[in-house]
Fold this sequence. Notes:
Strand content of chain A: 15-25%
Strand order of the largest sheet of chain A: 10-7-6-18-29
Number of domains of chain B: 3
Structural class of chain B: alpha/beta
Oligomer: heterodimer
Bound molecules: flavin-adenine dinucleotide, iron/sulfur cluster
Helix content of chain B: 25-40%
CATH architecture of the largest domain in chain A: 3-Layer(bba) Sandwich
CATH class of the largest domain in chain B: Alpha Beta
Number of helices of chain A: 16
Helix content of chain A: 25-40%
Amino acid sequence: xxxxxxxxxxxxxxxxGTVDVQEVAEWAAARLxxxxxxxxxxxxxxxxxxxxxxxxxxIKELGLTRVVVAxxxxxxxxxxxxxxxxxxxxxxxxxxxxxxxxQVSWVHTDKDMATAKAMAVVSGGVERVLHHEALEPLKVSIxxxxxxxxxxxxxxxAALEIADAGYKVYLVEREPSIGGHMAQFDKTFPTLDCxxxxxxxxxxxxxxxxxIELLTWSEVEKVDGYVGNFSVTIRKKSRYVKTDLCTGxxxxxxxxxxxxxxxxxxxxxxTRKAIYTPFAQAVPRYxxxxxxxxxxxxxxxxxxxxKFCPTSAIDFNQEDEIIxxxxxxxxxxxxYETFDAHRMxxxxxxxxxxxxxxxxxERMCNAxxxxxxxxxxxxxxxxxxxxxxxxxxxxxDKNYNEYxxxxxxxxxxxxxxxxxxxxxxxxxxxxxxxxxxxxxxxEFYQRVLEEGTHFIRGKVAEINDAPRxxxxxxxxIAQVEDTLVGVQMRIPLDMVILSVALEPRHDAKETAKRxxxxxxxxxxxxxxxxxxxxxxxxTEGILIAGCVQGxxxxxxxxxxxxxxxxxxxxxxxxxxxxxxPVRASVxxxxxxxxxxxxxxxxxxxxxxxxxxxxxxxxxxxxxxxxTCVAACPAGAITGTxxxxxxxxxxxxxxxxxxxxxxxxxx
Amino acid sequence: xxxxxxxxxxxxxxxxxxxxxxIAVLNIHEKILDVDANFDVVFWPVAMDAKYxxxxxxxxxxxxxxxxxxxxxxxxxxxxxxxxxxxxxxLVAFGSCANEGCIPGLANLSDSREIVSTAFNTxxxxxxxQIYPMISYDVPEGEIHIPKILPVxxxxxxxxxVDYYMPGCPPESHQIAAVIDLVVxxxxxxxxxxxxxxxIGAGNSTVCDECKxxxxxxxxxxxxxxxxxxxxxELCLLEQGIPCNGxxxxxxxxxxxxxxxxxxxxxxxPAEGVIDYGARLISAFASVIDSNDPEEIDRILDGIVDxxxxxxxxxLAGSLLKAGKPAWEKA
Lengths: 666, 331
Ligand SMILES: Cc1cc2nc3c(=O)[nH]c(=O)nc-3n(C[C@H](O)[C@H](O)[C@H](O)COP(=O)(O)OP(=O)(O)OC[C@H]3O[C@@H](n4cnc5c(N)ncnc54)[C@H](O)[C@@H]3O)c2cc1C
Ligand code: SF4
Ligand code: SF4
Ligand code: SF4
Ligand code: SF4
């Protein structure tokens, strides 16, 4: 007969405040004795070293063969208790953690009922653990190369950290140059460093690093494999430029006759040529031809670039190249997009020329931008005398995005400062709440306050150009309630800047699917744990960094890039990784080849053998999610650790069908 | 399995069932002679005259093999099930009704009064005096009884211990013949009986395993009733939106229905190890619906007009639920 130890945790008052833990422990020892329970204990913090030692001691002295811990969710401490069992020589998978915190004490108030439910949960755990099997983790080797997707600041940081440590990195970027959003900015809050001054050196470093293979103008098409052994198919879109010959001299784009409005890097504020690099400091320096706009591809003649290119690098017949790389870890740093201001028609964006988005304003401020850094109205000549900065456009708004975009308050303050500095105009910041929580941020706010910026607490109702008074003539009018004073105001302005929300990439869901990740309802990629594991994901070997995980500023993006790199490096160094053996497998004789399960696996672990008409699951790819186990109508798929026997036994336990007689009081 | 000069005894009984199982046994053609050659048929009401009291008089365990078909609907069924259990060495739940309730088991959605009133008081019943059956009735010769209907129909193994299970509605004749063959071989010492509790006369996979239709990754955009569509003769029916239960139904029938162009309705019951047939089917169907839009999903599911009939036609009494709530409530 198995010998089971039951350990009930107080979790301070978290559990003990609502559940009579002592009663639960005593009950288990008495009433589940005939099921094998030989000891029932309670302890203040089971996860503490003393708590763990309690288990270890009992395993050694009482010869426990199974352990049930009633505490928090397995997400949190399953590993802790498994490791404790392992230290004492018990196979870690013979331990079951049942949740009496998340599922009992936190959701109930009646102590008697909560205690009764905790007993049922413990009883379920005891029945289940009886069906546990001793398992061995799956060992797989780790390929030392890493793929980083997205060459914004987060991706660049991750790539450099790994490359500097001596390992190869493939850095894939879909635009012609790395740099991401940061490359578009002029100054960065709170220190007002020039973005280019701090970013360009990193870009160059990434571009020239012997361990980094830059794959710009490229996209990942397919990801196969699993942690340690991914095989990634990448499409290198044709640049129509031979990069081995091109020196980046720029003659081609100088000579190209075709001007195109640049909607990407210049956010529509400036133009580029049909053959172009997005900006002067682009890395790599090779241009690309924008085929849709190139005169040659439209009309069949031109080829000016080809004629003038001193090294004959132009190749109009170049085709996309598909390459496959093998990597052990993947860092996703695909960043964010900005909210489309057209969606809030009340702010007149697109209709009123001097209503700009924050990204457009960044380009305007940038010394190498369309106005050479001058802050001008759309007429291209006049300086504004009054500028309004609207916060939270598309953020903190039930109609668009409920979340806070994190950076807009500081970006609004940065803009206020720049406007002051460069135009001397009156500046109005319309905010709902001012959020300046990180290092140097509050100080920056004070500085901008002292510069004389007006702060109006209220959500702007409307921006219009319908004057009511002579002063409003020819102006934009911001209609807003100053909620601190409680008055409605009409503020005449020359220019309005909309601090647009940060949003997930439009293709975030497809990207997530391609890499086997999940997105939150908003579309941000979901981290393994919001506090304790922000750069890992539920898919082993796939890490996330920067704004792809949620809105954040540059310091946080950089920190995540470095953290993701450290994670990858840790795995690379270990050379081998032990995977949870909780996996699904197909019992071949039972599989009828009905193919119900074939399209269901979120991790692409399922394949079908046409010749034998059976399905197979790749154990290394399977994450044990159970989707296919539930779907297989033949019962041909079984999940280790989640077999039908285990689950039905647990249900019977929960229903207290197993409970023994009340022992006769001594 | 000593024979002692005498042939071993054989019995077959029908409880709540349609009689198809009996026909299926007779339908094994000349193999039936093997039964006669090897067994002494002591009790088989459909084929020969016999009295319960004769069975009651037999020694316990004296019948070697009893094929029991039909569900346990009334106290007579229950009495005979218990009686034959006592008298038989090997008791086989024969056919879908005995295994899992089958069509009679669908009555478990209603309580017994509703059932009786449906039988004696519907438009199609000519019963102007509203005469209802009575359990006991006094006649000059004394008191006479009819069997009492039980609150729910039970499967054989919900009432007595069962040795083997032979599914099908009815079991396919070739499977019956194979089982008879096996028992004969066991008698001759040439084979061994499978472990108790085994499902015999059927396969270990599902109907799809025996179905020749081509299949792909399934993406179902609508469920259709078969009379409403032109059926592609080569392609898996489920992929055509025809709710074929072959995916969840135990193999053994040679995929008769899908081969003939009709969907499998599930008469061979759940696959090996499956506890609730309908639940398996429901989650499988749900898994292949090709939509993420809740309203569209609802529309697709509306294509399954009779969910109980689709998912539990044969298995309701044997399912985890066993019966609908009213049947339990007003026992
Ligand atoms: C107007 C504005 C001003 C700001 N000012 C500041 C400031 O002053 N200070 C500060 O700290 N923060 C500021 N921020 C925030 C800052 O922009 C972000 O914190 C930072 O850029 C995030 O970097 P990232 O690498 O995560 O994302 P990104 O900069 O968005 O980079 C992502 C990269 O991935 C590429 N990519 C996307 N999808 C794919 C794909 N499928 N395949 C390959 N490549 C892909 C993109 O092309 C891009 O290069 C500001 C933000 C805004 C909107
Ligand atoms: S062919 Fe002409 S239009 Fe096209 S990129 Fe070259 S120079 Fe420009
Ligand atoms: S349990 Fe099934 S669906 Fe889930 S990851 Fe494993 S193979 Fe894929
Ligand atoms: S659902 Fe089950 S029976 Fe069907 S193919 Fe998948 S494993 Fe095989
Ligand atoms: S038609 Fe029915 S039995 Fe045949 S493969 Fe399709 S689901 Fe299975």
